[in-house]
Amino acid sequence: MNFQRSNLNSNEYTQLVCKTRQQLSSEFGWRSVQTFRTKLKQCGINLPSGSVTPKWQKIIYDSLGYPNGVSKKAFKEV
């Protein structure tokens, strides 16, 4: 099947991918990754090294809140 993006609504087109700490920091509106690390530490979250997987993103979003542009529904099955 060949789907075109215009034929899918936003809920059907969501694809979860690994993100960098900088990308996550930017989603929350923080200019510094250090601020992101501080917030994680305050929540007791100790991320493993490397890219942040969708599983860890869900943990972060559940603790810090879902920023604008991130759908809670997308992480329902994670």
Task: Describe the model.
By secondary structure, the protein is mainly α. The protein contains three helices and no strands. The chain has helices spanning 21-27, 33-43, 54-64. It is globular.
The residue ranges in which pLDDT falls below 50 over 5 or more consecutive positions are 1-13
Quickly count the helices: 3
Shape: globular
How would a crystallographer describe the biggest sheet?
none
Q: From N to C, what is the helix and strand string?
A: HHH
How much helix is in the residues?
A: 25-40%
The count of strands amounts to: 0
Find the structural class using helix and strand composition.
Answer: mainly alpha
Characterize this entry briefly.
This protein is mostly helical.
Defining key terms:
single chain; 78 residues; mainly alpha; 3 helices; 0% strand; disordered N terminus
Helix and strand topology:
Layout: H1 21-27, H2 33-43, H3 54-64
